[in-house]
From TrEMBL:
One Gene Ontology cellular component annotation held by this UniProt entry: Set1C/COMPASS complex
Protein name per Swiss-Prot or TrEMBL: SPRY domain-containing protein
CDD domains: SPRY_Ash2 (cd12872)
Keyword vocabulary terms for this entry: Membrane, Transmembrane, Transmembrane helix
Matches recorded under InterPro entries: ASH2 (IPR037353), B30.2/SPRY_sf (IPR043136), ConA-like_dom_sf (IPR013320)
Organism: Pichia californica
Length: 522
């Protein structure tokens, strides 16, 4: 009896409190009950939808151990492999057997445990020396380096091998310098000038082709230097495909898509003259690379996506409502997909690499093969170009012309990550045809990189410092005003970019982890 009276009093007190709440809310009891029932129904629907929703978890890194955290970054092992003698001095070159090489659609960068990044767990780091240099990872295994990582070369019985630098150029005006350490010597030039081409069975055309083993000149060391994108082949000379632009030492010719041509320079009378002098040991070759701003490049990429083309877009309208454009790197910015791995007990980030596309490969050889027949293309594909982009050549501080203008665009869809398409690529399916238009991510490493190639003992050095070896007179004022920067300065902005990317990746991963946890717990 007492229990029922107590329960009745409690119910009365609750009813009085409800009346006060309803009075304050200025709603009736029926409206309140309707609100409660609606809320319960919505919660049930959300739980049902959550159960039906497929939760795709991100690829989480394996947590580091205390040993990983306490172990200091080990300097790369340099194994003596090759000594190059250029007639003046001996150059000791090394291999780096404890480091992975970029290959098969994957690339690598060193990393370290970072307790401050509680979701990413690891951050990118650099291996010494801490300046721009030839890449530890992005070079042919048959290209060897000195201990300062500024000189590369190859054996005297190897064909063309290539290497890229560790930092790329995406926008702005940069001055890159190379010094030929081993290549054509003064003695070879003198012997070639004194002998007629017929004495070697050569004419001027055959002397300009890729060096062979049938003459003194063609059996000596040779080099090529220039810039190239990430897709350029490392087992071929720079300028072999559409991803690179090169200057060759014989006759100082320019090469792109394996097609060589002469470089024209303005004389004192403002007339064009052909510059065809051989580049020899000790020469300093400077290239001034000019690229438009990233804003302009993104406008071009946006127009390419809107028009579904890989060539120059016709309309640069910025007010295009396109779902594919909204889901691309244009709106989302830089996205990196990397996972920490261990290689020979050392930590590295493994990422998807950009690989050559069928259209660019077809550009090198514009024919369609049907069985035993090769039919030339009626219309040749022309990739999208960057306006106001160029490469200016300087030899020992003297301007020798502008060998290349309107360089090819590199932002997606001009570049492809085939290995990442199952996860990161966005595919638009055309209903009328089965063609697809693919937009891959921009991981922040797209751009043009200093790239050199060596042949039969050739060796070349890159200027890794801030001071220019041979400052051209026409660039002094631009250097002083900051309009032109030395390539050595690029390491500063690159380090900041990597740090910011690490912080952003950690924030994004933390959000995804919380989202995943909330969906699972609903």
């Amino acid at each position: 009896m007492y229990f029922h009276l107590t329960l009745k009093k409690k119910i009365e007190r609750v009813e009085k409190k409800m009346e006060i709440v309803l009075m304050l809310l200025n709603i009736s009891l029926a409206e309140f009950l309707r609100y409660i029932s609606t809320s319960i129904l919505i919660q049930k629907q959300e739980k049902t939808m959550a159960k039906k929703q497929k939760v795709i978890t991100r690829l989480k890194p394996i947590p580091y151990t205390l040993v990983d955290l306490s172990t200091s970054l080990r300097e790369p092992q340099f194994s003596p492999t090759l000594v190059i003698n250029n007639g003046q001095t001996n150059i000791q070159l090394f291999s780096t057997p404890d480091l992975p090489n970029n290959k098969r659609g994957f690339k690598y960068i060193s990393c370290r445990p970072n307790p401050y990044l509680d979701s990413l767990l690891y951050s990118t780091t650099d291996l010494p020396p801490y300046h721009v240099h030839w890449s530890y990872f992005d070079r042919s295994p048959e290209m060897f380096v000195d201990e300062k990582m500024t000189t590369v070369g190859t054996r005297d019985n190897d064909g063309w091998r290539s290497t890229r630098a560790n930092v790329g150029i995406r926008e702005g005006t940069w001055y890159i310098e190379y010094k030929i350490i081993n290549g054509i010597s003064d003695k070879e030039i003198t012997e070639t000038d004194n002998e007629s081409p017929a004495s070697h069975g050569l004419d001027e055309i055959s002397r300009s082709v890729t060096p062979m083993h049938n003459s003194n000149m063609n059996s000596s060391a040779h080099v090529r230097m220039g810039i190239a994108r990430r897709e350029a082949a490392l087992e071929a000379p720079v300028g072999f495909d559409g991803y690179g632009y090169a200057i060759r030492d014989i006759n100082c010719e320019k090469i792109h898509l394996s097609r060589r041509s002469e470089i024209k320079v303005k004389n004192n009378s403002n007339n064009d003259e052909i510059f065809n002098e051989d580049l020899k040991i000790g020469d300093i070759i400077g290239i001034l690379v000019e690229l438009p701003s990233m804003d302009i490049q993104k406008k071009i990429a946006s127009a390419m996506i809107s028009e579904r083309v890989l060539s120059d877009p016709k309309n640069m309208d910025e007010n295009v409502n396109d779902k594919l454009l909204q889901n691309s790197f244009i709106e989302k910015g830089i996205e990196r997909e990397m996972i920490p791995i261990k290689y020979k007990s050392e930590l590295f980030f493994e990422e998807y690499e950009y690989t050559g596309s069928h259209t660019m490969e077809h550009l090198l050889n514009p024919v369609t093969v049907f069985g035993e027949h090769a039919i030339p293309d009626k219309e040749r594909f022309q990739p999208a170009k960057l306006p106001n982009s160029s490469i200016t050549l300087y030899v020992n501080g003297e301007k020798k012309g502008i060998p290349f203008e309107n360089l090819y665009a590199f932002l997606p869809p001009a570049s492809e990550q085939r290995m990442a398409r199952t996860g990161g690529g966005k595919v638009l399916q055309n209903k009328k045809s089965q063609d697809t238009f693919i937009i891959d991510n921009d991981d922040g490493e797209l751009g043009y990189y200093p790239m050199v190639s060596c042949f039969r003992g050739g060796a070349i050095k890159i200027n890794s410092g801030n001071d220019v070896w041979k400052l051209p007179n026409d660039l002094k004022e631009k250097f002083n005003n900051g309009l032109v920067k030395s390539y050595g300065d690029r390491i500063k902005s690159h380090t900041v970019e990597e740090y910011i990317a690490d912080v952003i990746d950690n924030a994004v991963n933390k959000y995804l982890d919380k989202k995943e946890l909330s969906l699972i717990n609903m």
